[in-house]
Automatic annotation (TrEMBL), chains A, B:
This is Proline--tRNA ligase. GO terms for molecular function: aminoacyl-tRNA deacylase activity; ATP binding; catalytic activity, acting on a protein; proline-tRNA ligase activity; transferase activity. Consists of three domains: the N-terminal catalytic domain, the editing domain and the C-terminal anticodon-binding domain. It is found in: Cytoplasm. One of its GO terms (cellular component) is cytosol. Keywords: Aminoacyl-tRNA synthetase, ATP-binding, Cytoplasm, Ligase, Nucleotide-binding, Protein biosynthesis. Catalyzes the attachment of proline to tRNA(Pro) in a two-step reaction: proline is first activated by ATP to form Pro-AMP and then transferred to the acceptor end of tRNA(Pro). As ProRS can inadvertently accommodate and process non-cognate amino acids such as alanine and cysteine, to avoid such errors it has two additional distinct editing activities against alanine. One activity is designated as 'pretransfer' editing and involves the tRNA(Pro)-independent hydrolysis of activated Ala-AMP. It comes from Dielma fastidiosa. Signal peptide: none annotated. Its EC number is 6.1.1.15. CDD domains: ProRS-INS, ProRS_anticodon_short. It catalyses: tRNA(Pro) + L-proline + ATP = L-prolyl-tRNA(Pro) + AMP + diphosphate. Its main location: cytoplasm.
Length: 562, 562
């Protein structure tokens, strides 16, 4: 592509409304442009990258024998009501009415329609297994879209669905997809970890996530420093190695604790460590208020809490609700005499003589024991922390942050049962079909690659997804020899199958170098003053220094590098 | 693809809810499946066709130097308010609110956002011309979706937009697209006509449509039997060759005409031809009632009427409105003493002593003349009819029906002006950018091809868009020699670059032949009894008879045919 004849732009200034490196660089390099909250245009330069990501995914899907199709995004709301997911998605689904007042939603994921599609293939067990996929636009009305293309409201997803007659078949289909996913992310140049995760609103038997390791990742990837255990923080079990304390249970004692509201302040007041306290957190769970009791140094794991209570939505109670329930200022909640459901973390069950809020402003109670209040449920509802014990080997857990770029689910028969997808077995008996579901977010992959591959000058695309492989920079558009040599190289490299960006704009060389660095083309060839000696500068974007190459050997050098 | 290992189905019965041949055959051949009114799944077999159509379009766009990008479908409503099109689209746009009650629409076409995108490229006249396109999903809440994929509510469109500094540049850009469109439709094997059309809600200077000729087409393509004039019915001018009558104007005379309401009945009563009558049609135009006067043998052209009155919506007035306005039963409306706006077709202006309704049940008035009532406007608002005079050469017009598969617009500066897209000319003066807009509906192309290429056995895909080029049918899956030969042919043909469908199902040969005919694979090779003599049957889908070919010469025969 010749820049002088093309649509091309970059921005000098950082984007004001992008909090992530990838978001900022993708905007500045002219790859994307925000149109509304969490909705972007993929501009021509960015579209070239997105297409490469898409092609990698399509190739790997086709290699497994999966068959591509295309579902609508406009789906009757009743489809999700039938599967029981309308409520689970709640306001994350965009909902609308058509001109005849019929209720529709924009599909956030397509398990239901694929189950309907699969029913066309007949019911004989002989017609299994198979795998259907699409590369299609999804809609999710996120509460807080952010980080450029990482959390958006409209995005392209490759979603595949496997159909089998039994769990053994599902496992085979699952592993095919699992391996295809590894091939996809390897080819994209992503540094990623695979972790076990919560099955969430999807339901099912197993969920694994492909997490691209990034500081801004919204998921915490838990790994073991000893074994190959890895898991999403949200489902990692807290291994409680403490013993039940054998100290004698003392009598409760109300203590005035002015100005001490946070655990740290209260600990300082009592001169004890945080794990002598039990904190009482009041949440609203599907509309009901619930108190969670946790050791002072722990945080509530909302995923575990939702699963335990079989609920869809959880949020911290509003301040005025807390004050109404505890009849005290915020910061003094405690289990003694509290009139709402209490869920106690199982670590708390081993504690004795702990300190809690008194449900009375400026007061705490010390020497509280289990007999002093009634917990409705006792379970593991705490988040693991770095340094906790590995559930597999007992060594220590370490944390990194990840962006979920792909996920794989063993769904089992959940959707087949709700959508009525059955097969006839060899004995002519009806059984529900066993499904798997497999997703990759394409824009998110693009963003994760950008997040992992950049420096202070801009993006550094891996060769597999770069918008162009080679940039040809003409230093002076007044120099006919440079222009002629560039035109010849452009033809030769293009003929050899390379995608070449010819920077033949009437701009200063500094502007051109900056732009090519910002856009992140892997290989830059500069035709400048040394052309008189038959030399051009050859520079790889991911190497610090360039070097001179004889004009006649440039093509070979490029071939060597790709 | 081996059918024994794939998702594949066909339906024996005609689809109950498909009124078109293409809709029925696409459903029956397992290419599409309806999910709701005007919304379809594109199933795997259909997706292969759709991808070929898409690839043809993308190749032809890329060949012109147009650059691909991708816009969202979820667009702030205010974007279309800014351009003034929100009202024009009306309830044809799907509208929704996000979780924060912000108003969005699903984009029906993207002139506005492309104008925004183009503004990124800087304002110098030197950065022009360029052309941007996308292949993206559009949403239109049609009143009456119908004919399978021909009129749907969610569909993929290739929409391209050209950006120039002047009309001369626009014409060059326009012709590039125009020629690319011809290449697209030629490659798809479509029989089509190019006609001038109304610019409608798009606005602009010129609109041309690519009409695939089909009986079920919703557009009337007007052509001349003498010259190469062609036009959409909706804009074709009625050439009035009649002279002003020189007969004396007689006095009006009210006549009782019991049981005569329609023009035919009244004509019979008066024993005159329809062109002695003037019919009075009452319409509601953007909420206001308007009477249109037309020669008895003419129909109102609603497009001309809308344009004349600069209105968005037109519909026949309801019966009770007509009765209230005329103070008579429906069928007796006339211009004399009518209290609403009157638009008179210019043919009527030359008539004398004509017959009209009396605005009185069971009465007409004869000998009416222009002096007897007041027309507010006189204009060409009638539809041309077959046999009318060609506006170019005076020969006769003939009609065919067409499906609009593509359109091209010279938009001019309309969108640049409303969206603020300007450029700086050589004198540093700001001017609005000159745009063109070019659309192709991909599913509609697929449907139009199916509508033109079929017979009583099913679809007959042109080679360029067929889901597979070759079907290999094994007559008996119990015959090892047949299976072995088929497996070898499958490998050889695949290696030679052909897409091969191997029908290795355990089904009767009749079922297999029927399925391959229904799906419409261009070339079928059958391995049956004659394999012992080294022969296979070779049959092209679009030829009546097959013939035997030596096994060793099959690959050459296939190559010859493609």
């Amino acid at each position: 592509m010749k820049l002088s004849e093309s649509f091309f732009y970059t921005l000098r200034e950082n984007a004001k409304d992008e909090e992530s490196t990838s978001g900022n660089l993708l905007v500045r390099s002219g790859m994307i442009k925000k149109t509304s909250n969490g909705v972007y245009m993929i501009m021509p330069m960015g579209h070239r990258v997105l297409k490469k990501v898409e092609n990698i995914v399509r190739e790997e899907m086709d290699r497994t024998g999966a068959q591509e199709l295309l579902m609508p995004a406009l789906i009757l709301e009743e489809v999700y009501e039938k599967s029981g997911r309308r409520e689970a998605f709640g306001s994350n689904m965009f909902a609308l009415k058509d001109r005849y007042q019929k209720n529709y939603v924009l599909g956030p994921t397509h398990e239901e329609l694929f189950a309907v599609a699969a029913s066309m293939n007949g019911a004989s067990y002989k017609s299994f297994p198979y795998n259907l996929y699409q590369i299609q636009t999804k809609y999710r009305d996120e509460t807080r879209p952010r980080y450029g293309l990482i959390r958006v409201r409209e995005f392209i997803m490759k979603d595949a669905y496997s159909f089998d007659t039994d769990l053994e078949g599902l496992h085979t289909s699952y592993m095919k997809m699992f391996n295809a996913y590894k091939a996809c992310f390897d080819r994209m140049g992503l540094n990623y970890k695979i972790v076990k995760a919560d099955t969430g609103a999807m339901g099912g038997l197993l969920s694994e996530e492909f997490q691209a390791i990034c500081e801004i990742g919204e998921d915490t990837v838990v790994q073991c420093e000893g074994c190959d255990f890895s898991s999403n923080l949200e489902i990692t079990e807290v291994i409680d190695t403490s013993e039940v304390s054998d100290e004698a249970e003392l009598a409760m004692n109300e203590v005035e604790t002015p100005h001490a509201k946070t655990i740290d302040e209260v600990a300082a007041f009592f001169n004890k460590t945080a794990d002598s306290f039990v904190k009482t957190l009041i949440y609203k769970v599907d509309g009901e208020f619930v108190a969670f009791l946790l050791k002072g140094n722990r945080e509530l794991n909302e995923t575990k809490a939702l699963k335990l209570l079989q609920a869809n939505e959880i949020e911290l109670a509003a301040f005025d609700d807390v004050e109404r329930i505890t009849k005290a200022a915020v910061g003094f909640a405690g289990p003694v005499g509290l009139g709402i459901k209490i869920v106690m973390d199982r670590e708390v069950a081993k504690m004795k003589n702990f300190i809690v809020g008194a449900n009375k402003t400026n007061y705490h109670i010390e020497n509280v024991n289990l007999k002093d209040f009634k917990a409705d449920l006792v379970a593991d509802v705490a988040c693991v922390q770095a340094g906790d014990v590995c559930p597999c080997c007992g060594k220590k857990l370490v944390f990194t942050k990840g962006i979920e770029v792909g996920n794989t689910f063993k769904l089992g028969t959940k959707y087949a049962q709700t959508m009525g997808l059955n097969y006839l077995d060899a004995n002519n008996k009806l059984n529900p079909v066993v499904m798997g579901s497999y997703g990759i977010g394409l824009e998110r992959c693009m963003a994760a690659i950008a997040e992992q591959h950049n420096d202070e000058h801009g993006l550094i695309w891996p060769k597999s997804v770069a918008p162009f492989q080679v940039a040809l920079v003409i230093v002076s558009m007044k120099d006919e020899a440079q222009k002629k040599a560039a035109a010849e190289l452009y033809e030769q490299l293009s003929a050899a199958g390379f995608e070449v960006l010819l920077d033949d704009r009437d701009e200063r060389p500094g502007v051109k170098f900056k732009d090519m660095d910002l856009v992140g083309i892997p290989c830059r060839i500069t035709l400048g003053r040394k052309l008189g000696e038959g030399l051009v500068e050859f520079k790889m974007r991911d190497e610090a220094e360039g070097f001179d190459v004889e004009l006649s050997k440039v093509i070979d050098e490029v071939k060597n590098r790709f």
